[in-house]
Each structure stands twice: as structure tokens, then as C-alpha cells.
Design a protein that fits this description.
Largest sheet: 8 strands, mixed
Helix content: 25-40%
Number of domains: 1
Radius of gyration: 18 Å
CATH superfamily: Alpha/Beta hydrolase fold, catalytic domain
Shape: globular
């Protein structure tokens, strides 16, 4: 459906948040599914899954969070906090007049999701957790920085030039994909293009704040009554299921049948889009029947 980023970008709409314009994909009718990316990606991450869900009769919304993708990238630091990111999701969905939705989230999108649910748990009908940040024990970031010039120089590599992107973004995806034949120049270009310019600003917050210490959301997790499905790339060495499994089973209400370990590394949407979509669809259909 979307072979190039320019083709995908032409389908995006825009929501004016208080801090800047947010791009988002919104097509289809019926029950709504929100697809939330992480770091350093955008809604482009879900381009292979979107058409499958649309074909099955769902409305699909996939935002580019502020600082990422085709959204604005304003100067600032705390405006990229978990709380602010979660608040923007709620505001965007209210603007779109979506009263409830199923929520799919990946990587840093997990922290934005927890912060969103701390503000309002009533809107989400189902949670689909894809290789996301949950607990410190399961998160092994290869790089973390103190705030300052070194962190600023490092994050600039993601947005400065084609050469610096080649030495920053290319290894990120090559190290995060188990089946290397899934990597293509068009795929990588879809992540590089929207980072150019000021794409480093939100990354600076992530590397200097999120990577250093994760907030303990365990009390929130224990309070949730929302059905949870886990879809996890079993070869991921940054977000490790074995570091999260015990805590997830302790803090969430989730059955073993709803935990799916799949043949992929970190960017599972690039490797196993059909399998991910099928798990989501089967769960939603089962929920309707019960």
C-alpha cells in the first residue's frame, strides 16, 4: 500500500496541539485501533500492518508523536516528557471524537501509554504491548547520557546529514532486525527523511532522561482492568522479555495464551507484520464474541 515515505506522507492529516502540529494517519470505518510508535520511529513503522487492519474493517489511527515523523519538532525539553506525550494522545483522540479504542504500542510508546493511562483509563478497550519499555529490569539501552554537549552532539547525528544518519540510523535498524532481508533502502529512508532538521530534539530527552531511569508504573499496572495482549520479538536484546516476564505476569492480568513470542528482534513490525495483525484481529474478534 505504501512503498515510499513520500507516498505514505501524502496520506497524513494534522492536529494542532498546544505545542505544535501533530501528523497522523486516519482511515477506515468501524472499531478504532490506535497504533503508537516509539523511538526513533514514527507511524511509518506500521505501514505494513495498516492495510491488513483496514481490509478487516477497522478504523486505524497512527500518530506521529510531537518531535517525531512529520510532526512539528519544537525546541524544549519537558514538552517531550511522558506526561505531555500521553496528554497529547488523549487530546488528539478527543479532537477526532473517538470515545474508545484498542491501543497498540511499541518501544518508548509504552511510557507514553502508561502516562496516558494515569490520566485516563476509561478510553482504552484493549492493550497490545509490542516490545515496549515497561520496567528497568527489562530495558538494556546500549547508550545513555547526562544532559549536556556530548548528548547534544550524539543526538544530532540522527538529523544532521546523510552521512551522520548512515552511521546512526542504519546501525539502529540493522541491530534491531533479526531477518536482515527485511531491511531495504526505502524502509530506512522512511525513518531518515522525517528526522532531518530538528529530529534530534525529542531524542535528546529520550537519551538523557528515559534511558537513565524509568519511572515505576507498577501501581498503575496493578490497577488496570484493560485486557492485555503481549506480542514480543524473542530475539530483542535491548527490550528483553526475560527481564520483563515475571513483573508483567505479577502486575497485569494476562493469560499465557495472550503472550506471543515471535521470530523477530526489536522492530517486529518490519519483520512479522502479518503475524502481528493476525494476533490483534483474532483477539478483537474473540473479545466481541465473549
Amino acid at each position: 500500500m505504501f512503498s515510499t515515505y513520500s507516498q505514505y506522507q501524502s496520506n497524513l492529516l494534522y492536529f494542532e496541539s498546544q505545542e505544535g502540529k501533530m501528523a497522523y494517519f486516519d482511515e477506515g470505518q468501524g472499531e478504532c485501533i490506535l497504533l503508537l510508535h516509539g523511538v526513533p520511529t514514527s507511524s511509518w513503522l506500521y505501514r505494513k500492518i495498516i492495510p491488513i487492519l483496514l481490509q478487516k474493517g477497522y478504523r486505524v489511527i497512527a500518530p506521529d508523536m510531537l518531535g517525531y515523523g512529520s510532526s512539528d519538532k519544537p525546541e524544549g525539553y519537558e514538552l517531550y516528557s511522558d506526561f505531555k506525550m500521553g496528554e497529547r494522545i488523549l487530546r488528539m483522540m478527543a479532537h477526532l471524537e473517538v470515545g474508545s479504542w484498542s491501543h497498540v504500542f511499541h518501544d518508548g510508546g509504552g511510557l507514553w501509554t502508561w502516562a496516558m493511562l494515569e490520566q485516563d483509563q476509561t478510553k482504552v478497550k484493549n492493550l497490545f504491548m509490542l516490545n515496549t519499555i515497561i520496567y528497568q529490569t527489562g530495558f538494556k539501552p546500549p547508550i545513555k547520557f547526562e544532559k549536556g554537549i556530548i548528548a547534544k552532539l550524539f543526538t544530532r547525528l540522527y538529523s544532521y546529514s546523510k552521512f551522520t544518519q548512515k552511521i546512526s540510523i542504519d546501525p539502529t535498524f540493522k541491530n534491531g532486525i533479526h531477518h536482515k532481508n527485511k531491511i531495504s533502502s526505502d524502509m530506512l529512508e522512511g525513518y531518515k527523511v522525517p528526522l532531518k532538521g530538528k529530529g534530534h530534539l525529542a531524542l535528546y530527552y529520550f537519551f538523557t532522561q528515559t534511558c537513565k531511569q524509568i519511572k515505576d508504573y507498577s501501581p498503575l499496572h496493578q490497577s488496570l482492568k484493560i485486557p492485555l495482549t503481549v506480542i514480543w520479538g524473542k530475539w530483542d536484546d535491548v527490550l528483553r522479555w526475560e527481564g520483563n516476564e515475571e513483573h508483567v505476569k505479577l502486575n497485569f492480568t494476562v493469560s499465557q495464551d495472550d503472550i506471543h513470542l515471535i521470530d523477530a528482534k526489536h522492530f517486529i513490525q518490519e519483520e512479522q507484520p502479518e503475524e502481528i495483525a493476525e494476533i490483534i484481529i483474532q483477539k478483537l474478534q474473540k473479545t466481541i464474541l465473549t
